[in-house]
Amino acid sequence: MSSTRNMRKSVLSIAMGVCLSSLAVSPAFAQSATGGVAGRASAGDQVVLVNNATGASRTVTVAGDGTYRLSQLPVGDYSLQLKRGGQDVGQPLAVNVSLGGTTTVNLGNEGNLTNLDAVQVVGSRVVNRVDVYSTETATNVTREEISRMPVDQSLSSVALLAPGVVNSGATFGGLSFGGSSVAENVVYINGLNVTDPFFRRGNSTVPFAFYQEFQVKTGGYSVEFGRSTGGVINAVTRSGGNEFHGGLELTFEPAAWQERGKDRYHKNGSLHEVYSRDNSSWYKSNIWASGPILKDKLFFFAMYEQRDSRSNSYGTSSATKGRADNGFWGTKLDWQIADDHLLEFLAFSDEAESSTKQYQYNWDADVLGNQNGEGLNGSGGESWSLTYTGHFGDNFTAKALYGINKLSATGGSELDGACSIVTRSGEYDDKYGEPSLPVGCHPTNARPYSRYDKREAARLDFEWTLGDHLLRFGFDHEKVTSDNSLFNPGDGWAYSATVMKPGDELSNGALVPAGVTDVVDARHYATGALTEGLTQAFYLEDVWNVTDRFLLTAGLRLDQFDNKIFGKTFIKIDNMLAPRFGFSYDMKGDGSTKLFGNLGRYYLPVTNKVTDYFGGGTIDEHKFYVLNGWSEQKNPETGESYLAPILGAQIGSVDDSQNVLPKEDFREAVAKNIKAPFQDEAILGFQKALNREWSWGVNATYRRMGRTVDDVNINSYGCISGDWPYVNPGEKVTLWCEDTDSYITIDTSKDGYKASTTGVVMGYSKPRRTYKAVEFQIDRAWDGKWSFNASYLWSKSEGNFEGPVNSDTGYADTGLTQNFDHPANNQDYGPLFNDHRHQIKLRGAYKLNDMWSFGGTVTAVSGGPITGFGTYWPNDGRSAGSPSNEYGGGGSFWLCEQNCSSSNPADWVMKYSPRGAFGRLPWTYDVGANVTWTLPVPDVDLKVRFSVYNLLNNQEVVNVHSRYEAARGVKRPFFGEGTRWQSPRYMQLVMTYNF
User: Fold this and answer.
1) Under a CB-based contact definition with an 8 Å cutoff, are residues 872 and 909 in contact?
2) Which band of pLDDT confidence, cut at 50, 70 and 90, is reported for residue 25?
3) Does residue 93 contact residue 125 with C-beta atoms inside 8 Å?
4) Statement: the pTM of the whole predicted model exceeds 0.85
5) How many CB atoms lie within 10 A of CB 439?
6) What one-character DSSP code corresponds to residue 156?
7) In 10 A of CB 839, how many CB atoms?
8) Stretch (H or E) spanning 630
9) 186-189 and 232-237: which strand pairing?
C-alpha cells in the first residue's frame, strides 16, 4: 500500500544530462566490457601503452597508412609512449580508457599530442571528447563522476542519466528506453548477462560500491549485442593493482530524514490510500580491499557489504512492518599471465531474505494491534564468470567467457496452508465502510511462489585487423533454466468481494440475479513448471576505415532461440538475420567534429514465463457467489478474530476459459511458422567539441516494432477454439487442427475471431509501435573545478501495442498481454503508455576548495497519456475487458452510452474513445542537491557527502486507474484517479574513507 524504498528508488532517482564525450561511444569491442586507444602517428613507429595499476604493457606498430589501434584494454589509466628505432620519442602521455570507448590519441612526429581540440587533459590524463570510432549512442559514467552528484545508489539511477530513459509509472516499475516497455532491456556485468530470464523485468542486485564504470546503451549497439529492443546497461567492476588499497563506506537513510507521503482521497471525498504515517530506513556498510597477490602478475579486489532496511506501512485497519538484513560479498581476480594474455575471475552473491509482519491497526487511535502473521521473501543467488583475453601479434585478438548467473524469487508465510486470500474491492468498502476486523487470516494476501533461475553463458569473440579492415566475429550461447511454482494458499481459491448491479454480466456469461448487489469472485489459480531457454548467436562485422576520416561498419547477427518445457521443445525459432550498418565521419580530421549514423534490426527472445504458462499448464478458474455477509473467525496462529465471507448461492457455472492444460503436443498451442519479435532502428547524429571543455551535439532516432508474439483468441475454428495459441498476431499463422489431423493456415489480420452475437468473422490489427526522437545536448566537462550538462529530448511513442507487458492496466506477465484477447483490445493507434513528449535533464558540479564541493540535478518529464478502456465494442456480445477485475483483462476503445442493459448488441449506442482521449498526466519535476566535505589533510582520503533527493518534495501522480467501465455502460467511480505517485523527499549521508 505504501511507497516502499524500492518504489522510491525507481520513481525518484534523479535524472541528469549526459556528458557529450559519451554521446556516441563504444566501438564494437567484444561485449564492450573493455575499451581501446587508437589514432594516427608516423608509419613504422611503435606505440607502447602501460597500465598504471598493473604494469601490463601493450605494443603496436603504426601501420603504413599512419594509423594504429589497441583494443580490448581493461578500463583505467594508462601511460602512452611513442618509440622510434627502440628509442623513446617525446614524453609519456597519461591516457584514460573508458568502458566501451576508444580514446583518440593522434601523435606528431615528436611524440606530442596533436588533436588538442578533440581531447581534454584532466589531471594530466587525456580524456576523449569525441569518439570518432563509434557509431552508436550511449552514456558513460564513472565512479568519480557519480561521487560529485546526487545520484542514488542503484543501476536505475545511473541509467536515468541517459536521454530517452525514463522511470515507468507502471505498478510493477522498471525503466523505459526509447519508448520501449520495461521488459525489453538487458544488463551485463563484466560481460555476463545478469537479466532476469523469466519476466525480463529485473536483474542481479550488485551494490553500487562494487562497480567501477557504467555504460548505458540507448541505441545503435553493434552485432555482438542482441536480445534487446529497449536498452542495455553495461557495467564493469573494480579491480586490484600493484598497490594495496582499502576502504570503508557507510550509508545512512534514517526514517527521520524522509518526508511523509500525502494521504490520497477520491474525488467523492472518500479515502483512497494513506501514506502520511509510512516510513522506511536504510543503512549499509561495506569494507573493501585490493592489491597484488603476486606483483605485476596476480591482483585481487574483494568487498563485503551489510545492508539493513526497515519499512513501516499503515492503513486504516492494518499495518505492516518489513525488515531485511542481508550481506553481499564479491571478488575480482586478475591474472596477467603475460603482457598479451589476461585471465579474469568474477564472483559475487546477492542472496537476500526479508520478512513482513502484518498487524491489526486502529487509524483514528494510532494504535497497533495484534500480529496477524508474517510473510517471508527471498531473492538473488551466487554468480561467477571466467574471462580470457589474448593478443596474438598486432593484428589478432581472442576473448572467451564462461559464467553462471543465478537469481531467485520466493515468497510465502507460515499460514499458507491454513488461510485463503480474501479481499474487498474499493467499491465495496466505499459502500459499507472499512471493516472493523481484518478480512481473512492470510498475513499478506499474496500467492506463495518459488522460482529459481540459472543462466549458463559462454561466448567467443575475435578481432582480426587486415589493412584498413577490422574483422570482428564471434559466437555466444546462453542456457537459462527456471523452476517455478505459484498457487493460491488455503483451499486454493482466492475470494474477492465486490459490488455489482442486478443484470450485470459475469465472465462466465451468467447475469447477476435480481436483488443481488454483493458478489464474491472466487478464483482458483495454480501454475508451475521446469522450463529452459536456449539462445545462441553468431555474428560477423567489418569495421572499415574507408579513408582516414570516414569509418564504415557493416555487420550481420544470426540469432536462434529454443524454448523447452521438461526438456521438450515448445518454441524454436532460427535463422533470425539482424543486419546492422553504421558510419562515422571525422569532418575536420582532428577528431573534434563528427557526423555519425546507424541502421539495424534487433530481435527479442521469448521469456521462460511464456513456456511455463503454456507447457506447464495453468489452472485459472472463476466461480461467482452471492455474498451473504461476513462471519467472525479465529486466526489459527494468533487466535485473533478476523472476517470471512459467507458464500451464498453460486451464480452460473465455473468459468474455466482461462485454463491451460499441460500439453504433450504443442502443435496446436504454437504456430508452426512462428517468428521472433523484432525492431528496426535508425539514428543520425552530429557532435562537436568547441574546445577542451565545451561540446555540443544533436541526434535523431527512429524505431519501429515490426512484429510481436502473443497468445491470441482464435475461436472461429472449432478445432482450436478456446486454446489461445501463441502466434504472430496480424500475420498468417499455421496451426495444427486435431479434427482434420492436419495443419491449417489462418490470416489473423482478416480471420480468427468470431463475434458471439452476429457470427461475423474478423481479424486482429497488426501490432505497431513507433518511436521518434530528437535529442540536443551541451556539455562542459569536469576540469577539476566545475562541470555542467544540459539535454533536451523531444519524442513521440505511438502505436497499438506497448510491448510484451501492459503498463496501462498493470498486467506484468511478459509476453502474455491482453492485446489480442479480443480484436477491440488493440484496435486504436495512438500515444502509448511510455509516450513522454518532453524530457529536460540538467546537472552540475562545483568545487569551492579542497574541503567543500557541491552538486545539483534537475529533471523535468512531461506526463504520459490517459486512456479510458471499455468492456465491449459494437455488435459483439462477448466482453473485451474484465468487468470484475481492473487488472485481469483487456479493454476496448468503445464506451457504451445508451441502452447498455439490453442483451441485444444491436441496441447499444457506443462511443469511440481513442488512446489519450482523457488528456495527459502532469509534468514531473525532480531537483537534487548534495554537498561534500573532504578532510583537508594530505594523503588522507576521508569524505562525507550529504544528498537530498526530490528537494522540492513534489508528489505528482504518475499513473491512474485506466479502466473507464466496470460493466457495459457503468463507469468505474475511480477512473482517472491516481494509483501511483512520485515518492516524497528523502536525504542520504555517505561517509567514505579510502587508503
Assistant:
1) no
2) very low
3) no
4) yes
5) 22
6) H
7) 22
8) strand 618-634
9) parallel
